[in-house]
């Protein structure tokens, strides 16, 4: 029994010594976690992209309206009048955040059964200064040879998302 008591005492002493030496080698720290939730980004249409009044002939061409509002015909297309505009959209969200813009690959404007193709162009990215920014857009209208007369219209969808 005496040996057993010595053994128990010795085992307890080794356990205490081991615990003390291991605790001297351990350390702890507390970390923090953070999250920021952005205001949902939104986009709304403003001014319509308007190519104005034009005339073509047998060979056709294009009418380009830049996002800065400059109109240029190509091919045999002739533009008349001053009623043309770059389109605008308003993007809103969390101030100073950057966003990416996705344009449609192309869409059509129609007058009855007649169509012309449009490709929309503009900035691929932007920054929400103060939480709101006006996004100008331009485009290229493809006018076919002997394009039918008429008033052509169509719609397109723009997408924005935070970077």
Please report which band the strand proportion falls in: under 5%, 5-15%, 15-25%, 25-35%, 35-45% or over 45%.
35-45%
Return the CATH topology.
Immunoglobulin-like
Mean pLDDT, rounded to whole units?
90
**CATH architecture level-2 label:** Sandwich
Distance between the termini: 76 Å
Q: Describe the biggest sheet?
A: 7 strands, antiparallel
Question: In angstroms, what is the radius of gyration?
Answer: 34 Å
Tally of DSSP helical segments = 1
> How would you describe the shape?
elongated
Total domain units: 1
InterPro entries: DUF4402 (IPR025514), TAT_signal (IPR006311)
Protein name: DUF4402 domain-containing protein
Keywords: Signal
Organism: Polaromonas eurypsychrophila
């Amino acid at each position: 029994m005496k040996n057993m008591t010595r053994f128990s005492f010795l085992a307890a002493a080794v356990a205490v010594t081991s615990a003390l030496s291991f605790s001297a080698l351990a350390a702890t720290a507390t970390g923090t976690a953070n999250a920021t939730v952005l205001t949902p980004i939104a986009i709304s249409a403003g001014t319509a992209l308007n190519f104005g009044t034009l005339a073509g002939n047998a060979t056709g061409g294009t009418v380009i309206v830049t996002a800065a509002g400059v109109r240029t015909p190509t091919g045999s297309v002739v533009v008349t009048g001053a009623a043309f505009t770059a389109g605008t959209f308003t993007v809103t969200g969390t101030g100073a955040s950057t966003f990416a813009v996705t344009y449609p690959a192309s869409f059509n404007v129609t007058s009855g059964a007649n169509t012309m193709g449009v490709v929309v162009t503009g900035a691929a990215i932007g920054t929400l200064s103060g939480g709101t920014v006006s996004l100008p857009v331009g485009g290229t209208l493809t006018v076919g040879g002997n394009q039918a007369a008429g008033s052509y219209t169509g719609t397109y969808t723009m997408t924005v998302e935070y970077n």
